[in-house]
Known about the structure:
Mean pLDDT is 75; it is low at 105-109. The chain has helices at residues 14-25, 51-62, 78-100, 114-126, 128-145, 152-178, 183-204, 217-225, 234-241, 248-260, 263-286, 294-323, and strands at residues 2-9, 30-36, 41-46, 68-70. It has twelve helices and four strands; from the N terminus they run E-H-E-E-H-E-H-H-H-H-H-H-H-H-H-H. The chain crosses the membrane at residues 84-105, 117-141, 162-181, 187-212, 233-256, 268-287, 299-317.
Amino acid sequence: MKSYTFHIHEMHCASCTVLTDMELRSHSDVESVRVHLDTKTVDVVGNFETQEEARLELAPLLAPHGYTLAHEAAIAPRDSIIRALPFAAGIIALFLVLQTFGLAGTLGNDAITPATALIIGFIASLSSCGAVVGSLLLSLTAHYANKGERIVPQLTFHGGRLIAFFVLGGLLGTFGSILTLGFYTTLILNIVVTLMLLALGMSLLNIARVKLLTLPAFVTKPITKLVSAKKPWTPFALGALTFFLPCGFTQSAQLYSLSLGTFADGAMFMSMFALGTLPVLLIISFLPLAFRNPQKKQLFNTVAGILVLFFALYTLYTTLNILI
């Protein structure tokens, strides 16, 4: 057995590590896998004669998810940012128009609105966060399709996801009220959300090496094992438990829900986030599509990175306005 280290292009959050670990471990010649999010690398121990042989064997496992297994680190090309700017600018302009005419609505304070949650949820569904949920969903779909069940399990999965995000989001809001979050505590939470979004945006753009918050393996690994379970409640439980998957987008939304301080606001905010993810996840349920082309994945991640940086700065701006 030999050990090799590879760089993974387009890796940006903890969900990437879950997805990468699942795919590489599925290869029969792989003994162990260790993914490092901060360096965007993976250590693989396996029965391969050379590093190039290992790369050629393992790269196809990650390619369908838009990742590239490489010998060198990824660098964000300038032309990718230039091509991404018009798309990002269009979405930002739409958001600002909604804000100007009061169509976005507000939640708690004015730092982040339901429209923001909807947009961030949509971005998350197209990122590796959505890829992990989508992979679980595709496995679930294949399992039940073999039994002749093609619709009900998928709808049950989405129902479990929406209900869990509503209830658990509400509980986060309630917990925030129990803590009796004061003005400065809420302000600090908003700043932490801003910093998390900034870190996520910089990671998406490959402009900084950041270490993002992750959940321990003992929380996330049981979720992936549920896919192979054959219980009637499996789809609903799997959908509900995606609330705990390590996604930077989801974690930022959860932290912000805590600062809202009421069940209604927390439930509404996380529900809007979940609804933002729904269109893409529905497509994955019934028509397996994804950003499989590396160039398209890179373009999307660049657009997403610009948008996340915008929302981070917008959150910081509105938060600082509270002090004025």
